[in-house]
Amino acid sequence: MTVDNPTDTTTTTSTAISLRGATLSYGDRVLWDGLDLDIAPGEFVAVLGPNGSGKTSLLRVLLGLQRLSAGTVEVAGARPGRASRSVGYIPQQRALDPSLTVRGRDLVGLGLDGHRWGIGFGGMRDRRRRVTDAVAAVGATDFADRPVGLLSGGEQQRLRVAQALVGDPAVLLCDEPLLSLDIANQRAVSTLIDKRRRDADTAVVFVTHEINPVLPLVDRVLYLVDGRFRIGTPDEVMTSKNLSELYRAAVEVIKVRGQIHVVGVHSGLCEDESHHHLAEAE
Ligand SMILES: Nc1ncnc2c1ncn2[C@@H]1O[C@H](COP(=O)(O)OP(=O)(O)OP(=O)(O)O)[C@@H](O)[C@H]1O
To answer: Measured from the CA of 54, which atom of ligand 1 is nearest?
Structure first.
């Protein structure tokens, strides 16, 4: 069920992530089946789909936290989990406890623990330099010494990006990193992620309910609905025909001023309409 994919690669050397015949089911429930996907270094892939379609489960597979029911998966040339130092992860955003007194730069440093930079002679100096650089790269220097619990959602999210990037990952996995950020911070965080993949060729898998904030950055979309999926560029995948087939309902895709609106998907497919692509046509 894939759309032609001119950027598809077949060798592991030029592939950051490779899924072959990947299937994930929980009991009788098939989340996705026969998923073939190669993601190239530096590629930005958005994973879209309604609540419960298996987006986070895909990230869990790539992190080595969830085994496939069938098929194979490689991340940075290794089995998931084995390549953990090559993988950065921005988990779904939850506001940090206001009483949390750990400093921002210590939170970022957690991204290095267990990595090669944290150990050995000179390791502490390297570690400090890497944390300082990562904090600066996300524009967090001014607040990195404050307790993270007192920072705004946008400031906390910049630090999470720094934590994911401080280990110099080849693959960056993001689970709705823009959730509950205002437009300025959505733009700031997505620009940081985009810069990283351009500067360091880091492959990005970006789970999101809303494609528009990242549409200019997206190379390909993986759209999951109820066990079915489509893969391709946004223009290839986000058509009325494709989405109607995926949702098995009449869905209309309207492109207005460089944005994509999906009309006609009722809320039974998605619990939270504010997360949804549902929008009134302008
Ligand atoms: N370990 C598990 N055992 C059984 N079912 C599970 C397990 N993990 C997830 N599920 C179910 O699989 C489905 C997919 O969950 P997942 O979190 O991957 O969806 P999602 O697309 O990320 O959803 P959302 O948009 O709501 O975050 C859900 O119905 C969930 O309840």
So the answer is: 18
The residues spanned by each domain of the chain are: 97-168
- List Cβ neighbours of 258 (8 Å cut-off, separation of 6 or more): 215, 216
Q: Which residues have C-beta within 8 Å of that of residue 1, sequence separation ≥ 6?
A: 34, 228, 229, 230, 231
What's the CA-to-centroid distance between 20 and ligand 1, angstroms?
A: 21
Measured in Å, residue 53 CA sits from the centre of ligand 1 at 7
- Measured between alpha carbons, how far is 139 from 188 in angstroms, rounded to an integer? 10
Taking 70 as the pLDDT cut, the residues of the chain under it are 1-13, 83, 114-122, 266-282
Across the chain, what does the average pLDDT equal?
85
ipTM rounded to 2 decimals: 0.96
The pTM of this model reads: 0.86
Q: What type of residue sits at position 213?
A: P
DSSP string, 14-66: G-SEEEEEEEEEETTEEEEEEEEEEE-TT-EEEEE-STTSSHHHHHHHHTTSS
No. of helices (H) and no. of strands (E), the chain? 7, 11
Report the pLDDT value the prediction gives residue 278, as an integer from 0 to 100.
Answer: 37
Q: Are 177 and 159 in contact (CB under 8 A)?
A: no
d(CA 54, CA 60): 10
Buried b (16+ CB within 10 A) or exposed e, 124-155: eebbeebbeebbebbebeebbeebbeebebeb
